[in-house]
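Example record for the data management plan.
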Amino acid sequence: MDKIVRAFSLLPAFARQSFTFDRGTEFAGFRALEEGIGACSWFCDPSAPWQKGTVENTNKRIRRFLPGSTDLAVVSQRDLLRLTRHINDQPRKCLGYRTPAEVFIAHLQEGG
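Corresponding structural encoding:
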């Protein structure tokens, strides 16, 4: 969670209000995230992926490039950043055919 806290602490508070997690053990340190950046954490009910539809959709997009069996320890930070940019630069119908990057930048510029 320390890396997440460091990364998100650079953003203004309005851009890091909440995080939604599934029930995985990798999120056991969620309180450090809440305390570190003042965000609320939300957990989906077990076996209820529809409660975090955007996350599931993004995971599906990631799996096109990194199958679930991929050991992320062998994937370079550079490759992960490249994949992140690729995904965030794809227009989405739900965003009026704007990209997630465009919408996020507009949100930051509007101040919330």
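Summary line stored alongside the record: The chain has a mean pLDDT of 92.
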